Amino acid sequence: MNKLVILRGKPTSGKTTAFHTLKKKRVLKDWEFIDLSAMKNRIKDKEKAKRKLFELLKISMRAEKDILIEEMSEKTARKYISYYIRKYNYKIITFQFEVNLKEAHKRNIQRAKDKWHSHMTKKELEDFSEIFTFKIKVQFRS
User: Fold this and answer.
1) What are the tens digits of pLDDT across the range 51-91?
2) Which end of the chain, N or C, is surrounded by fewer C-beta atoms within 10 Å?
3) Residue 117: what pLDDT?
4) What is the spatial distance between Cα 63 and Cα 86, in angstroms, rounded to a whole number?
5) Would you state the pLDDT for residue 118?
6) What is the pLDDT of residue 137?
7) Is 54 helix (H, G, I), strand (E, B) or coil?
8) Is 107 inside any structural domain?
9) CA distance 9 to 12
10) In a domain, 17, yes or no
11) Is residue 82 part of a domain?
């Protein structure tokens, strides 16, 4: 069974770090890594970026590759690519990352120094934190 692994979580929770670490170390050497953040930064039109993303996912699924992606909900994946999930027998595995506000702020300060990573203000982190509740969980669904 092929896998579509989704890394989820609020800003500074570690999903991008995990994504890039796994990619760099080649732990999952035969996997497709689809970087939605980079795609959004390169393609300013959100709808165009979304179409490109699902195009890439469909190509990878047709090739029956295991896929790692960040910043997508399972609901969105099922909405746009459910046909391919069923046709190519993909199992969706979601990792939900967690970080408390104090740690998020500390990490955000470090992010400001990193050229490849965006950062948010303390106020934006607090606002974001109020909107979402984050628990580390792994969901296995087919």
Assistant:
1) 888 899 999 999 999 999 987 888 888 888 999 999 999 99
2) N
3) 57
4) 14
5) 55
6) 33
7) helix
8) no
9) 8
10) yes
11) yes
Task: Say if residues 92 and 142 touch (Cβ distance below 8 Å).
Answer: yes
Residue type, 116: W
User: Count of domains in the chain?
Assistant: 1
User: How many angstroms separate the CA atoms of 36 and 7, rounded?
Assistant: 11
SS3 10: coil
Range of the domain at 72: 2-99+136-141
CA separation, residue 97 to residues 7, 13, 114 (Å): 7, 6, 20
| Most confident range, picked from 59-68, 113-122, 128-137 | 59-68
**111 is a domain residue:** no
Angle, alpha carbons 81-41-46 (nearest 5°): 50
- The structure's pTM equals 0.73
Calpha distance 91→48 (Å, rounded): 26
The enclosing domain of 73 has a CATH number of 3.40.50.300
| Tokens found for residue 74 | 């399972």
> Cα(15)–Cα(7) distance, rounded to whole angstroms?
6
Q: Looking at 21-25, 58-62, 86-90, 122-126, which range is the least confident one?
A: 122-126
The secondary structure element, H or E, covering residue 18 is helix 15-25
